[in-house]
């Protein structure tokens, strides 16, 4: 592309032209621009969408070999988000995570260093690639007790212990919008000659406004996956993969993307990626003015409602890249680097400071009043704002919170196990947190997941299915000490607390019990109510 034109949306414009031409379809899809439903109301609003639902024909380009409008749209995306090259994803960030892992770990048995609390798509990528995983402990925010990302020193130690590692993968920001400086991690990785991969699914908007934290690319990451549909304005499943630098084999990456994505990608989804990019590209920081104003309404309102607390770092360093962790990279012990130094203003994480309502209960009450939170854990409720949020909506949210505070002022609501705030060491934890070391109300966060060591031994993942003859179901309460024979994933946020072959510690068993009692939803397990859990049968050697 000779000249960057931020105001263009090539894929979207092509679809508009396609619709206006009105050519008779002798190609798939079979609904024939929605004609299959004419005279019927069975398709409803989808009849309009079908008029733009095309396939790879002359003029529409091909996602897996882009030469026309898709190529131009991806080049515009790279310019907008600061990448050397960008790829549209029609399978969400899941497709990007799978493709990155299959690229850096191109053969079974290769080693990847990553934090344990990763999205299920990352675990699936480890399985598909046959990876030897080295898990490193994330740092813990001492006030909230929530995990963030590994310290640069921990990454450096893991790379020294496993110099054969192909890459390092971290998640930033967290589902709660929490983050820290990635620049020291990028420097450590590049010094060791490996790429830094970042699952930035919840940070597609980062770096686009001074009030927002710096994006992973700005901090030196090499491969970055973003869910454009989550925090920007694309349709669900619309995401992007951005790359820069010499550390990734881009030809192999293209091949891997073709493997994990449909050969018939959704053109409406790709058009929505084009529009979402155009909105930010053409309006710049102004695109976020209304959304940030809505957040400000909430923050000011919460200041008048002492019943509720708002999660935020002790010393915010928004927009700073290479600042919060530069001392650590220069040789300062890891304790000197803040675990939690940036907060996405669009992720308002609230909790009942009085301790009367747990997170699950607060979410239920908000839903009863017409509010739709993103997620909750035992203590917190995550409220996701965006550039599409409005101040009047924030006012309605505040009204609902005031009503809930009045309705529960007598303290009759179910209190969490404990609400006393306890201080944690600012060091990252080397072992599972001991009882009383973390607030009881956040020990059961669906985001946290602690391993037994700062740096784990290699864990080999594979596609070999679990043999049902070697497993049995036991009550969850009696599962401590057994070996899991299934994955257990609280969703949202989709962080597996157990994978097949992992020992079920008493700590994890208690967390699962408390999540179940709190109303958490589970995926991937045979019993979604989690009354029972599948474990390896001792007689078959699974626990030998």
TrEMBL record:
It comes from the Bacteria. InterPro entries: Orn/Lys/Arg_deCO2ase_major_dom, Orn_Lys_Arg_decarboxylase-I, Prn/Lys/Arg_de-COase_C, PyrdxlP-dep_Trfase, PyrdxlP-dep_Trfase_major. Residues 10-391 form the Orn/Lys/Arg decarboxylases family 1 pyridoxal-P attachment site domain. Transmembrane segments: none annotated. Its cofactor is pyridoxal 5'-phosphate. The keyword Lyase applies. Keywords: Decarboxylase, Lyase, Pyridoxal phosphate. Residues 470-510 form the Orn/Lys/Arg decarboxylase C-terminal domain. Belongs to the Orn/Lys/Arg decarboxylase class-I family. This is Amino acid decarboxylase. The lineage of its organism: Bacteria, Bacillati, Bacillota, Bacilli, Bacillales.
